[in-house]
Specification:
Length: about 160
């Protein structure tokens, strides 16, 4: 080994160590939604227009007075933009919510205008529509949502003893 030997070893160790940290993160935290994948977002936009827009609105703005139950005791559709709370929920919860629908999700005879989409949309279409919704959020909200997914995933791993 020449004079550079010890430095070369140090740099090598630092690079491998850094790569391992990055790799661990990439492996441990699967990203359920793909808001930066153009073809997924394009599919999601179509799924949204055909299935969700009638209630949740063309601009994802929801229905007026969405926090107040109507005469039949049902909630109007909430917005999916920054003013709503869709982005307060981890991706895994949102996927489950769209699949099963609010009636099953809440239980106890809860009534809702929204049905479940299992059997109507494929899993890929559900991921796509939520990816499209996420793609409309600001970079700041998308980051906050990524962090929530990470915390949710870590909590799940812990609960499973992993
Ligand atoms: C018939 C109207 C209607 C349609 C169509 C509809 N929704 Fe909804 N959605 C609602 C209502 C109403 C709620 C509020 C749930 C409740 O009743 O408590 C809701 C709630 C949600 C929520 C939870 C938001 C939160 O902040 O908790 C998500 C996510 C959602 N809808 C996604 C979708 C997607 C995706 C589609 C299309 C595949 C869709 N919805 C189609 C009416 C609708």
């Amino acid at each position: 080994m020449g004079r550079l030997g010890p430095w070369a070893v140090l740099i090598f160790v630092a690079l491998v160590g850094g790569a391992m940290v990055l790799f661990r993160q990439a492996v441990e935290i699967p990203s359920l939604l793909k808001p930066t994948d153009r073809s997924v977002v394009e599919l999601g936009k179509q799924v949204y227009a055909n299935n969700c827009m009638v209630c949740h609105g063309e601009q994802l703005q929801g229905q007026p007075n969405w926090q107040q139950r109507d005469a039949n005791g049902l909630l109007p559709a909430p917005p999916h933009d920054a003013s709503g709370h869709t982005w307060h929920h981890p991706s895994a919860y949102l996927i489950e919510f769209v699949k099963r629908g609010p009636v099953q999700m809440v239980g106890n005879g809860y009534q809702s205008a929204m049905g479940g989409y299992a059997g109507v949309l494929t899993d890929d279409e559900i991921v796509a529509v939520l990816s499209y919704i996420k793609s409309t959020w600001s970079a700041r909200i998308q980051r906050a949502h990524n962090q929530m997914d990470e915390r949710f995933f870590e909590a799940q791993q812990k609960a499973q003893g992993g």
